[in-house]
Amino acid sequence: MRIHCKVVAIAVCFGVFLLLYFFGGNAADEPPLKEVAKEKHFPSFGNFEDIVLLKGAKQTNEEPQKPPKLIRKEPKLSSRRAENVIAKTRLKSEVGRPRSKVTLAEDVMHLAVVACGNRLDETLNMVKSALLFSMKKIKFHIFAEEDLAEQFERGFSQWPQTLSSRFHYSIYPITFSVGNADEWKKLFKPCAAQRLFLPVILKDVDSLLYVDTDVLFLRPMDDIWKFLKAFNSTQLAAMAPEHEIPKIGWYSRFARHPYYGVTGVNSGVMLMNLTRIRNTLFRNSMIASGLSWENLLHPLYQKYKNHITWGDQDLLNIIFHYNPECLYIFPCQWNYRPDHCMYGSNCKAAEEEGVSILHGNRGVYHDDKQPAFRVVYDAIHEYPFEENLFQSLFYPLQTKFLDTVNTLCGRIPQVFLKQIEKSMKAAYEKKVVRRVRPPHK
């Protein structure tokens, strides 16, 4: 029985072994099953920008590996030794570099004048007065007839060589870019209308002071030049009132055209920001959209030519009547004329501080109607360059002024003498008085 059981067990084990061998062998002979490829799903984009955004987002998620920092130990230097090393390094780096010698635009003041006919001597005297007291260099823009151009050059060539470093000048022909040139030239005084075209002609000049030929500076031009910094964002020119008292002012009594403010303005001394003028559209009574300066001049003249008396000055008054926010008004002492004293003193600023710029209109430099003006003109004209200002200019002026105290404009001498004396003291201190350096300890 036991033997029979053992035989049965062995047979069963052998049968199981055969079955395992049969199924295992077939499985080993078959090739392995192929994997089914997974479908790649790409998101649909409405436009190219979505693709770029997705790409950028992917890049931001993956932070690039940062290279390891190299730590370099350097010996510490004492403060004095460190300064020496830095100084030597700067010297080496600057070797061979050209040094800039460009003069800043702010260091040069620009002054324009228009001279025609017999205005040569007046103009030279005006230029002389500007150079006597001014601190910065001046570039003179002289517009003159052809025959006067040579006389100007000859006149400047006779001045001392020491003055050549203090000013430059350019001489331009009389030109009018729009309208009839002969008609413009005869407007009011010969060539006076040329000043209207300065923003068009001097395109490379940012700011400019225009003066008539019969103007004299009794203080540095630098002081009136400072008014440019007082302009607000809309102001582009500065002038003084034509009169201080409306009841006796010309415009308030006789004008047949629009004018600025209550008494109008006088254009004999006119400070301008030419860049702003060129970039502004001016309101007017002809075109609602506004006109540029160059396009405004001729139609404005055509409309009012039968109603104006003082030529280009009247046109300027009309322009600033419609554009009052563009004008800065400086005190009467910067354009002091016979009108301020021949009807009684009516320029309070001049009484307090003295005349800054003397404007001898009405021909008063060349007749005996207002001798106080002529005395100042003659004193500057006769002053020899490089002589002592007090001995050769102020004292003779003071002496001659005694003969004018009984005249309408000469009865208050300090109006004419106060500012010029102050300017001479400043010029004298600049030229003679030198500060002594303290001795080294």
Automatic annotation (TrEMBL):
Gene3D superfamilies: Spore Coat Polysaccharide Biosynthesis Protein SpsA, Chain A. It is a single-pass type II membrane protein. Residues 1-28 form the signal peptide. It catalyses: 3-O-(beta-D-glucosyl)-L-seryl-[EGF-like domain protein] + UDP-alpha-D-xylose = 3-O-[alpha-D-xylosyl-(1->3)-beta-D-glucosyl]-L-seryl-[EGF-like domain protein] + UDP + H(+). Its EC number is 2.4.2.42. Pfam families: Glyco_transf_8. InterPro entries: Glyco_trans_8, Glycosyltransferase_8, Nucleotide-diphossugar_trans. It is found in: Membrane. The keyword Transmembrane applies. GO terms for biological process: protein O-linked glycosylation via N-acetyl-galactosamine. Keywords: Glycoprotein, Glycosyltransferase, Membrane, Signal, Signal-anchor, Transferase, Transmembrane, Transmembrane helix. GO terms for cellular component: membrane. Its main location: membrane. The keyword Transmembrane helix applies. Glycosyltransferase which elongates the O-linked glucose attached to EGF-like repeats in the extracellular domain of Notch proteins by catalyzing the addition of xylose. Belongs to the glycosyltransferase 8 family. This is UDP-D-xylose:beta-D-glucoside alpha-1,3-D-xylosyltransferase. The gene is gxylt2.
